[in-house]
Design brief:
This protein is of the alpha/beta class. The protein has helices spanning about 25-30, 30-40, 60-80, 100-110, 135-150, 160, 190-200, 200-205, 210-225; strands at about 1-5, 5-10, 15-20, 40-45, 85, 115-120, 170-175, 180-185, 235-240.
Length: about 240
């Protein structure tokens, strides 16, 4: 069971999280991930890029930065109970929601066979430009198409059948950055979220007051969801997909 603004709900058995960059999960969803794995859910990650454009320090090559960020995300995933990561290798900063990306995500869905897919919103948020990174929007657009219709349709990308990946139907999509209708209480997993974020040394080393800032965000989210004072939360738009 996991705790929400609507009380305790049954955790899904399998969840796949699809995002654009290393650290996207940990800023937006890691408390939820820790709650899910703590409740016995198998969680896997799918990252469309390796984050090789995510730094101003030009002393590292793009290949070196990609290797560094993959290692950081792998370590961060372990902090919240995740060991299965899929790297798609699309170019950081240039992700396009084309048929190739849809196929790649559909393949991962058919491999991991989740009940629930978590992803970012495909709709720009003009109040928060960082949420609306074009890679986030493109990844979300492709992920939604991969959930429906691609991963469940045997006629979509027949080469996936040739590879042995049978169709799979996802039951729900949980979107971050969209108008929420579910708030996940992460009070008990907040420290795991912060531990995961701190594994991203290349990204948060200069982030002053990381824990305090993130706590403030999560506290505001909990308040918006009507959770009791002192609780912390992450928020989602839950969309039926079956």
């Amino acid at each position: 069971m996991i705790l929400t603004d609507q009380g305790e709900i049954e955790a899904p058995q399998r969840t796949l999280i699809v995002v654009a960059h290393p650290d996207d999960i940990d800023f937006g969803m890691a408390g939820t991930v820790a709650a899910l794995t703590g409740a016995g859910c198998h969680v896997s990650y799918c990252l469309t890029t390796s984050g090789e454009a995510g730094g101003d320090d030009l002393t590292h090559t793009s290949a070196e930065l990609a290797e560094m960020r993959q290692a950081e995300q792998t370590a961060a995933a372990r902090r919240v109970g995740v060991t299965e990561l899929h790297w798609l290798g699309h170019p950081d900063g240039m992700v396009v929601a084309d048929l190739g990306l849809r196929r790649d995500i559909a393949r991962v869905i058919r491999i991991s066979r989740p009940d629930v897919v978590l992803c970012q919103t495909s709709i720009p948020n003009w109040d928060h430009i960082y949420i609306s990174h074009p890679d986030h929007l493109a990844t979300a657009t492709a992920a939604l198409a991969a959930v429906y219709p691609d991963s469940r349709n045997p006629r979509a990308f027949p080469d996936l059948l040739d590879e042995g990946h049978e169709p799979h139907e996802v039951s729900e999509i949980w979107l971050t950055g969209a108008e929420p209708n579910r708030y996940i209480d992460i009070t008990d997993t907040f420290e795991q979220k912060i531990a995961a974020l701190r594994e991203h040394h290349s990204q948060v080393a200069q982030f002053d007051g990381l824990a305090d800032r993130v706590r403030e965000w999560c506290s505001g989210t909990a308040e918006a969801g009507g959770l009791p004072e002192g609780r912390l939360a992450e928020a989602y738009r839950v969309v039926p997909a079956a």
